[in-house]
C-alpha cells in the first residue's frame, strides 16, 4: 500500500474537519444538504477543541464515523470480490481493522484545522433512498476543491457511502489499493489484515496519506 494515497480515509477526515454554513431550518435528519452541513459543523465543534488529547479526539472521531458513515457497507465494497471468498472471521477482523485504520491514520489532521469551509451547491435525488450532495471545499489560500457526497437513507437517517473528490471515487480508489495488497499476498484477505494490523500498531506520525 506504500506509494498510494488513501483517498477514502483522507477525504473522510478532511471533509469531517471542515466548518460549514449550517441551514436555517433543523432539517438535517431528512435533507441531504443539511445533513452534510450539520455533520461538518458538529465535527469542527467536537474535534478541534483546544486542549483535547489525541485519545479523546480519536474517540470522538470514531463516534462520528460509526454514527454517520456506513462503514460495514463501505468495508464490504472496498474488499470487492474478496469479500465473497473470505471466511466470516476474516471479514469481521477486516471491518474492525478498517475502522481502526481510518481513525488512527488521520486523527492528527484535526489538530491542524485552519478554517476551511464546505459549501453545498446542489442536491440530487438518486432514487431508491440514495442521494448525492454536490459542493466544494472553500480554501482561502488555494483553489477550491470539488467534493461530492453519496449517501443512502437507512430508514432513520442518511449514511455516507462514498465521496467523489475532483471526480475520483474514494471507495473505488481504496478498493484498488486493497486489491493490490491482497493479490500480492496470494489472494488472501488475511494478507491485507496483516498489513492493516501492522499499520494500526505503528506510531501515529508514520501513518500518512502518502504512504
Summarize the structure.
By secondary structure, the chain is an alpha+beta fold.
Topology, element by element:
Blueprint: H1 7-16, E1 19-20, H2 32-47, H3 54-68, H4 71-79, H5 82-85, H6 88-106, E2 117-127, E3 130-138, E4 145-153, E5 158-165, E6 168-169, H7 170-184, H8 189-201
Parallel strand pairs: 1-2
Antiparallel strand pairs: 2-3, 3-4, 4-5, 5-6
Please describe what this structure looks like:
There is one protein chain. The protein has 211 residues and is α+β, with helices and mostly antiparallel strands. The protein has a single domain (7-193), classed as Tgt2/MlaC (Nuclear Transport Factor 2, Chain: A, Roll), CATH 3.10.450.710. Helices cover 48% and strands 19% of the residues. It has eight helices and six strands, in the order αβαααααβββββαα. The protein has a six-stranded mixed beta sheet with strand order 1-2-3-4-5-6. A hairpin with a 2-residue loop joins strand 2 and strand 3. Helix 7 crosses helix 8 (189-201). It is globular.
Give, in order, the helices and strands: HEHHHHHEEEEEHH
Number of helices: 8
CATH superfamily: Tgt2/MlaC
Average the pLDDT over all residues and give the rounded result: 79
**Spatial order of strands in the largest sheet:** 1-2-3-4-5-6
Helix amount, in percent?
Answer: 40-55%
Number of domains: 1
For this structure, the CATH topology is Nuclear Transport Factor 2, Chain: A
Q: First CA to last CA: what distance?
A: 7 Å
